[in-house]
Amino acid sequence: MSFLGTRQSQPVPSVGGEFGEQLRTERLAKGYSLADLAQQLAVTKGYLSRLELGKAKPAPEMIDRIAKALNIDSSPLQVLAGYLPTDVKQILYRHPVEAPELLRESFGEYEVSRESTEQRRKNQQPVVRTAELGHTAIRRKDLYEIVHGDCFDWMDHRDPGSVHAVVTDPPYGLKEYTPEEKQKLRRGRGGVWRIPPTLDGYTRSPLPRFTVLTAEDKAELKDFFARWATKVFRVLVPGGHVFIATNPLVSHLVYVALEEAGFEKRGEIIRLVQTLRGGDRPKNAHKEFENVTVMPRSCWEPWGLFRKPCEGRVQDNLRKWKTGGLRRVSDEQPFGDVIKSYPTRRIERDLAPHPSLKPQAFMRQIVRAALPLGEGIVLDPFMGGGSTIAAACAVGYRSIGIESDPEYYQVAVQAIPQLAALIVNGEEVPPKAGIRSARDNH
Ligand SMILES: C[S@@+](CC[C@H](N)C(=O)[O-])C[C@H]1O[C@@H](n2cnc3c(N)ncnc32)[C@H](O)[C@@H]1O
Asked: Residues with beta carbon inside 6 Å of ligand 1?
């Protein structure tokens, strides 16, 4: 199979009138009559009308011209007309196994569907269980508290032993969330954030470049986590777990800091996620060293698992503090340390535009496991767009989120109820992890 060897715009079977429908929608949105657009394209009105009625198939070059005339991206139109953009072909060729997920999760717009344009638009809306949202709005509000502030300060003022688990995804490299770096990210230029190339017009989410951390940055990072871990240790009850997202390049520094603060390492959760990071050939010499990969293609994300030591036996600690273990998935299935996951879905990223947003499908599993009896409070000191808090709401747990950045805090305010109401992977939240009232958690 060689997609790369085929002609750039090899047609695939026609998908009916979708292209025509879309063309008509775009044309009308721009206020063009058939005659106006036909004149611009130097084609007849009849030809354009046949395109819109799905009675003629345009050549890829004609689609590019139409897109240019309407000032829109041509890729979705190419797909609707039955052509695959070159980069998509390359993904299919290079990652045949992961391609469906990569394309669906990262570039949902490329999905070719047989639904009507209207239906597709409806389906692109967040899958919100509206009836339930109304029904649980008050209960959900009671379940969480979010704070705009610095988590170090917040923890200093929090009562000791008043949090039962921490599930968090900190600024890995420290640098990426400094005001200077955030400004560069928001401008889309330079800094520690690598803005990956657009894929046929669609810009992927930016990724931080950890390889640019110097020895000094690393020492600073260790010191940051040492101070942070000491504060977390104080606010957690005995037996309380910490789930901390990290990455294979810096995880050792973070883990040592947690151990030195008094935590026990209890393992690591492997979030299996295929991303587009790594796997590149040497920059500017990829032809010369075409059989070389500079770094492995990233296929997993480590989440360190730590516990504040229990008071006595686990059973004693569970009775007294409601912590010390992890909640089972079911009677038959203990919580496991490898979780199959996917990049955060577009629908979630649209609801909570934060560059490091974690997916609900994964977050709900680990947040649920964090409270063995389903009782207590989950803290996310680096809340970001609110995925932990939304996950806690979805499984009926009480939670507290802290976010220092005013813009991301506002993102979380808006996004949490909507993320919490999403149906993940087209399924309801499992009944055992269903919505419960705050009172159920005492
Ligand atoms: C990696 S992101 C978390 C993303 C989050 N897991 C989500 O799914 O949206 C880390 C967040 O911590 C915030 N942050 C950094 N330092 C902080 C601090 N001292 N206190 C509170 N929040 C902080 C950053 O602004 C950033 O939004």
From this structure: 150-152, 169-171, 177, 354, 356-358, 381-382, 384-385, 387, 402-405, 408
- The answer to whether 81 touches 51, Cβ cutoff 8 Å, is no
Three-class SS state of 411: helix
Q: Ligand 1, atom 19: nearest CA belongs to which residue?
A: 150
What are the φ and ψ backbone dihedral angles of 325, each rounded to 5 degrees? -130, -170
Strand pairing report for 300-307 and 236-245? antiparallel
| DSSP 8-state secondary structure symbol assigned to residue 296 | P
Question: Dihedral angle at the C-alpha atoms of 307, 275, 300, 220, nearest 10 degrees?
Answer: -50
DSSP 308: P
Find, among 398, 366, 403, 406, the residue nearest to 383 by Cα: 403
pLDDT at position 402: 98
428 phi-psi bin (left φ>0, alpha ψ -120 to 50, beta other): beta
Mutation test residue for ligand 1: of 383, 399, 418, the one with most atoms within 8 Å of CB: 383
Domain boundaries defined on the chain: 2-122, 143-421
Q: In the CATH scheme, what is the code of domain 143-421?
A: 3.40.50.150
CB atoms within 10 A of CB 308: 26
Superfamily of chain region 2-122? lambda repressor-like DNA-binding domains (1.10.260.40)
Cα–Cα distance, 101 to 405 (Å, whole number): 32
Query: What atom in ligand 1 is closest to the CA of residue 182?
Result: 25
Specify the ligand 1 atom closest to the Cα of 152. 19
Q: Output the CA 169–ligand 1 centroid distance in Å.
A: 7
Edge-to-edge strands, sheet with 163-168: 144-148, 398-403, 377-380, 163-168, 236-245, 300-307, 264-272, 338-340
3-state secondary structure of 199: strand
Mean pLDDT, each 10-residue run in order, the chain (442 residues): 34 61 87 91 91 88 90 80 70 58 46 39 34 37 91 98 98 64 63 48 48 78 95 98 93 96 98 82 90 91 97 98 98 96 93 95 98 98 98 97 97 97 63 32 24
φ/ψ of 149, rounded to 5, equals 175, -175
Which tokens is 368 given?
A: 């649920």
d(CA 392, CA 419): 11
Ligand 1 atom showing the smallest separation from residue 354 Cα: 9
Distance of CA 310 to the CA centre of its chain: 33
Distance 337 CA to ligand 1 centre (A): 24
Pocket test for ligand 1, best of 157, 167, 177 (most atoms within 8 A of CB): 177
DSSP strands (E only) in 129-263? 144-148, 163-168, 193-194, 207-208, 236-245
